[in-house]
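Margin note from the TA: students keep mixing up input and output lines. Inputs are the sequences; the output is the structure of the whole complex. Example:
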Amino acid sequence: MKGSKPKTTTLALLQHRAGESPVDNVQHTLDAAKQAAQNGAQIICTQELFATEYFCQSEDHANFDLAEPIPGPTTGVFQKIAHDLDVVIIVSIFERRAAGLYHNSAAVIDAGGVLLGVYRKMHIPDDPLYYEKFYFTPGDSDPGFCAWNTKYGRIGVLICWDQWYPEAARLTALAGADILLYPTAIGWHPSEKADEGDAQHAGWQTIQRSHAIANGCFVAAVNRIGHEKPTDGDGLEFWGQSFVAAPSGEVIAEAGIDTEEILLTELNIAQVNEARTHWPFLRDRRIDAYERISRRFLD
Amino acid sequence: MKGSKPKTTTLALLQHRAGESPVDNVQHTLDAAKQAAQNGAQIICTQELFATEYFCQSEDHANFDLAEPIPGPTTGVFQKIAHDLDVVIIVSIFERRAAGLYHNSAAVIDAGGVLLGVYRKMHIPDDPLYYEKFYFTPGDSDPGFCAWNTKYGRIGVLICWDQWYPEAARLTALAGADILLYPTAIGWHPSEKADEGDAQHAGWQTIQRSHAIANGCFVAAVNRIGHEKPTDGDGLEFWGQSFVAAPSGEVIAEAGIDTEEILLTELNIAQVNEARTHWPFLRDRRIDAYERISRRFLD
């Protein structure tokens, strides 16, 4: 089915604040998805773990109760609107795969409501207030990086910490994705914001723009907003600024730092072909010389 | 020897115009290197193919006469100043390896004058007015991507078109390089400059900044200036703007578009450790899942 792509696709990124109630958060995201579809969206992407506050700020066994299977209740309600509104939806889920086995996942639902598959986050961070290694087993699907044909284009899904890894973007693009979608939850430590906040945000945007450039594809990141303090301490200020980069690396749409937004962007998929023809990086890859990428360090 | 690095290193990038006379160009670059050393430079990097105009604007067999071996006359004169001034120098050379076998290479000369090795450009472009595949055989060293211990730090060298490949930067960083140096010759087609020039330059800088971010190392690009028209037609306007990015991806030094400059920058090598500790991307690479990077496309 590769090659049978529509020429333009309207993408919607759902950037918002999360509250304490998962029921309310899911309803809020559903409402935003419906509004996006009414506004013309064909592919809709949620922010990472939209159903909850970012619970990884602490290591608390009680939080495992927030997880659910795929398919499950949340994918079910989104499959229904994918069917009713004929939209593709990428739904970030805290996935319970088995007792003691959890993933940070994204369900890919085609227009019409069919669940095409699940991407399980491959790179798991563990840093102060981002204690994800406690909660999430790294993805072990084969292949871990892949792409799906949807009604509105061939897409790949990666999640947050994955965005720092050129290997992840490359493999997903080589699988044929024209759009890389990154549900994300990233923010500032309030104590670092004044001195390092701008550089941290710039680094985050820069490396994702570079994936667009290196691979000649669209890249979209969907981040939450809001200052969340689920535990004692300063919490995290999620920096929003969801954005879309064209295959040239240019930012063609960007949301605010602290505003709930449905970021609607029309993607001219023909730009993938144009970029890759004029900047033919895929032509010249030295695939005979990359084997040691699979080594930890060359010492 | 890894780990026994000095804490700061002063880097000089030699950005200038090339004229018709190779003798004059080499002398001009030698003079700039000497000046850089007097200004405190410890590592000096030339621009790509500094000895000549960018002859790849046409496919002309006569141009093979511009090549020379390594070691050869040009590396000889730079080895002498590396000895006399106790500086490391990366010297870009159109290398004649054998009859009918030429490379786009860079000689790495340690302080004291020892020739440590040669990097042969791995990714070779071929696009209008950049007819490099006619002249240069792709590098075939084993390993193709590597790093060298010099008196003033552990460095890696890549060349121009290599800068678009995250794989090249990654492998060179995994080999232990704290600084990636890119001798470069890139410019605008005059007919494209008004409409696409800014985006082209931004893409070029963005992807190199991303290598700094992904790998937590310094990245430096050394580009020429000047509008060269060695053949009929509009020629190429080389865009200068040599720059250095810190491990955070921030640009810490940048030269002008059309000015000859010795861009002197002090690098605090301890920032490599700091960046990699606070943004521990190397910790979490999924080396079990990258094998297909060595495939052309996943179809």
